[in-house]
Amino acid sequence: MQQAGTVRVGLGGRAYDILIGTGLIANAGEHIAPLLQRRKTVIVTDEHVAALHGQALMAALAKDGIAAEMITLPAGEATKRFEMLESLTEQLLALGVERKDAIIALGGGVIGDITGFAASILRRGCRFIQIPTSLLAQVDSSVGGKTAINAKAGKNLIGAFHQPVLVLADTDVLHTLPERELKAGYAEIVKYGALGDFEFFEWLEEHGTALLAGDDDLRREAVTRSVSAKARIVEEDETEGGVRALLNLGHTFGHALEAATGYSSTLLHGEGVAIGMAMAFRFSAEEGLCPGQDASRLEAHLTACGMLPDITTLAGVREAGPEGLLKLMYQDKKVEDGRLTLILARRLGDAFIAKDVEPDKVTRFLERYF
Ligand SMILES: NC(=O)c1ccc[n+]([C@@H]2O[C@H](COP(=O)([O-])OP(=O)(O)OC[C@H]3O[C@@H](n4cnc5c(N)ncnc54)[C@H](O)[C@@H]3O)[C@@H](O)[C@H]2O)c1
Ligand SMILES: O=C(O)C(=O)C[C@@H](O)[C@H](O)[C@H](O)COP(=O)(O)O
Ligand SMILES: [Zn+2]
């Protein structure tokens, strides 16, 4: 049975709906057919998701007369690289994807990011639909139009803003997601509370454990609240000229840790975000910007969910050391005129953009972690 709510991302000519609920993949054809110029599409997915949910989507599209081909990429962050982008775009062209077609990204944030980027450049831009299957992709990466691959120099450095034309977040599929991946997605949910909604943070303190354990109603509510918050920010600032940078809370530290650990399974993106948010709050507290008890409260919640490892135990991080991490932080896209921008906090639920952060302060802060 299909049961879904809708959040609209109001971006004028690039506006789209995010449908959140159950039975959305089983009925995908009915939502997708009206968007197609011809009843033909290509699904891009990864090997795990293809095995679990690929056939269900193919069958749902066939029910509405949509012929679909499937391209399956390797799972994991290492897929967000140039060689994969080349292979993906060549395969899309070989399958005859036309400029007016809409391709489908079925998977987590890795598939959404690389497929969205491929769509943004294929024949100078075709449309794409997000069917996010990880918690992280449902609450964050499928919405807002940031698409990218990683570069040797840093995370998501080659990409484009390219909005999807539809997002189908089917919470049924979360039941096959491994626990570690669920927790990684949960970090991005905590982010919305920590950056701008204290009441949501309190709700997560109360319901986080049950949500992670599998409660569908709580998951649906968390996805809806998260994407609603993201949609409002993206509507105000689509290409991160200002306020959208708040969605980067924890990411300057987190992306540096991901780079230091080689974009590998040593540290998932969401895990880096959890550690990075705790660091951003602790740094804010040590700078006298935020009460220490708020930093402790955030740490306590993340620790209760098993999400705050000692960073120096992560292969690659000790080798990088404070100086190495600081250097990686300077690849951040928020750097302006060679100066570091961090998302810091006044309190839980109130983050702000701090420009021109002194590197010495960050180095001394990082040294205390080692
Ligand atoms: N564009 C954005 O705004 C944005 C936002 C946040 C994160 N991201 C990016 O998203 C990526 C992380 O996304 P992710 O955490 O989804 O990682 P992912 O895409 O690697 O998916 C996580 C793992 O779960 C598997 N998986 C996905 N759905 C499943 C399901 N329903 N059942 C079983 N297994 C499933 C995948 O095969 C993979 O092994 C990072 O590259 C990050 O940079 C982008
Ligand atoms: O949508 C945004 O804006 C975000 O910053 C969301 C982040 O969770 C996401 O990881 C994003 O890809 C990071 O953006 P980047 O510009 O730092 O690469
Ligand atoms: Zn993120």
TrEMBL record:
Entry cofactors: NAD(+); Co(2+); Zn(2+)
Enzyme class: lyase
A single GO cellular-component term on record: cytoplasm
GO biological process: amino acid biosynthetic process; aromatic amino acid family biosynthetic process; chorismate biosynthetic process
Annotated 3-dehydroquinate synthase N-terminal domain residues: 71-183
Residues that coordinate or bind NAD(+): 109-113, 133-134, 146, 155
Catalytic activity: 7-phospho-2-dehydro-3-deoxy-D-arabino-heptonate = 3-dehydroquinate + phosphate
Binding site for Zn(2+): 188, 251, 269
Keyword Transferase annotated: no
Subcellular localization(s) per the UniProt record: Cytoplasm
A molecular function (GO) term: 3-dehydroquinate synthase activity
Pfam name, any one: DHQ_synthase
Cited InterPro entries: Dehydroquinate_synthase, DHQ_synth_AroB, DHQ_synth_fam, DHQS/DOIS_N, DHQS_C
Domain 3-dehydroquinate synthase C-terminal: 185-335
EC number: 4.2.3.4
Alphabetical list of Gene3D superfamilies matching this protein: 3.40.50.1970, Dehydroquinate synthase-like - alpha domain
Annotated metabolic or biological route of this protein: Metabolic intermediate biosynthesis; chorismate biosynthesis; chorismate from D-erythrose 4-phosphate and phosphoenolpyruvate: step 2/7
Keywords: Amino-acid biosynthesis, Aromatic amino acid biosynthesis, Cobalt, Cytoplasm, Lyase, Metal-binding, NAD, Nucleotide-binding, Zinc
SUPFAM superfamilies in the cross-refs: Dehydroquinate synthase-like (SSF56796)
Entry note: cofactor: Binds 1 divalent metal cation per subunit. Can use either Co(2+) or Zn(2+).
Family: Belongs to the sugar phosphate cyclases superfamily. Dehydroquinate synthase family.
Biological role stated in the UniProt entry: Catalyzes the conversion of 3-deoxy-D-arabino-heptulosonate 7-phosphate (DAHP) to dehydroquinate (DHQ).
Alphabetical list of HAMAP family matching this protein: DHQ_synthase
Protein name (database record): 3-dehydroquinate synthase
Source organism per UniProt: Aquisalinus luteolus
Lineage: Bacteria, Pseudomonadati, Pseudomonadota, Alphaproteobacteria, Parvularculales
Designated gene of the protein: aroB
